[in-house]
Amino acid sequence: DSGVTQTPKHLITATGQRVTLRCSPRSGDLSVYWYQQSLDQGLQFLIQYYNGEERAKGNILERFSAQQFPDLHSELNLSSLELGDSALYFCASSPPGTGTHEQFFGPGTRLTVL
Amino acid sequence: AQKVTQAQTEISVVEKEDVTLDCVYETRDTTYYLFWYKQPPSGELVFLIRRNSFDEQNEISGRYSWNFQKSTSSFNFTITASQVVDSAVYFCALSLSEGGGNKLTFGTGTQLKVEL
Q: CA–CA distance from A66 to each of A47, A76, B65, B77 (Å)?
């Protein structure tokens, strides 16, 4: 158990809908990262927040947005869902500072778009 | 731009065989970290090892060993005396500092199947 929690574990929804994935980092970690793992794109970095501020952006679609709240939990919002958005979404957190580069991954949220 | 290549898509071995998973990376940065993660069928990502770019010492942990060679930009992973429980997808990843943050670039993964 990494200490990173993600809810829900599974999510099934329809095309065109909007969903919110939630992540709570390990106690004391200030950074939260989101990754998407799909069959055709593999494991891809989406976005990073550090203490509420966006720090790095990867291949995140405009239909997707994220935020980190004052209590440091983060939410990833996916809207106008398409079949291709079906994937496993991981959240990771890391301690303050960039020195170790270590990221602790949550168990993931499996999103199925029908 | 950074890139991680895992050329082996799938490897099948018989239990107790040794197996090496290859990883080649590309980056212009001089400071970086390399990782290996295991993803069993249950789906979670399990951290195996982290190595920074200044430490080329090879590492052994039980049946696992890692060979880091900067000259060939490779960070290979060997499992000795493989077991059925080693069956999983293994990912190599590269971490760079960028804009005050770090991001992991993953390879496409190698599916390892260990059979009896």
A: 8, 4, 38, 35
